[in-house]
Every structure is written in C-alpha cells, then in structure tokens.
Known about the structure:
InterPro entries: ASHA1/2-like_C, START-like_dom_sf. Belongs to the AHA1 family. Pfam families: AHSA1. It comes from Cellulosimicrobium funkei. The protein is an alpha+beta fold. The protein has a single domain (about 5-110), classed as 2-Layer Sandwich (Alpha-D-Glucose-1,6-Bisphosphate, Chain A, domain 4), CATH 3.30.530.20. Helix content is about 15%, strand content about 45%. It contains 1 helix and 6 strands. It has a 6-stranded antiparallel sheet, with helices on one face. The longest helix is centred in the last third of the chain and has 19 residues, at about 95-110. It is globular. It starts with 11 loop residues before the first strand and ends with a helix.
Amino acid sequence: MHPSARWMLGMNIETDFRPGSPVTFEGHYMGREFADWGTVVAVERPRLLHFTHFSPTMGLPDVPESYHDIAITLEPDDSGTLVRVVERNIETAERAERAHALWTKALATLAGHD
C-alpha cells in the first residue's frame, strides 16, 4: 500500500514537494476510479504544505479558477501537534460539506497512526 493511502482514504499521492511541481491523486472513491491533479504552491518543512487540486469529476473546465487551494499547517500544541487544513475556492456549500467530511475522516485516521 502506498504510504499516503494509509491515512488519505486509500488515495495515492505523488509529488516531489517542490514548489511548481505537479501533484497527482489517484485511487477509488465510492466504487469509482479517479485521477486528480494539481501543483505544489509552497512547502515550509515541517510546518506547511500548500497545493492546488483539480478533479475532472467536478464537471468544471480545467482552468485555474476551477482549482481548489489547499493549505495544511502543523503547529506545536500542548497535547501534541495541531493540524489545520484550509481549503478554498470550493464551488458549492454541498461540496464544502463533503470536503469537510473527507478531511475530518482523513485526519482522524492519521491521528490513529503513530
């Protein structure tokens, strides 16, 4: 199993983590195979991963305005590490709710792995 698939809901994520480099997301969701993509915007190890994300399943044109903007930050916390995910440019409230549910599940899975 791909290392990212363990916590990212079975999704394989490939990138070299250099700003400007591509990032791909592949896997199965609700019984369907998918292949999404984006670009690494910024990396500040060990605190920030910022990237874009586009999915053809959204039914939108592959133009910059259709990409989600996702920033994952890590901050020290009294009880460990605070992980914050901010996803911007989501088209509808329904899709925002779905993104929230998916991130909640992924982060809960990650929290269970030491």
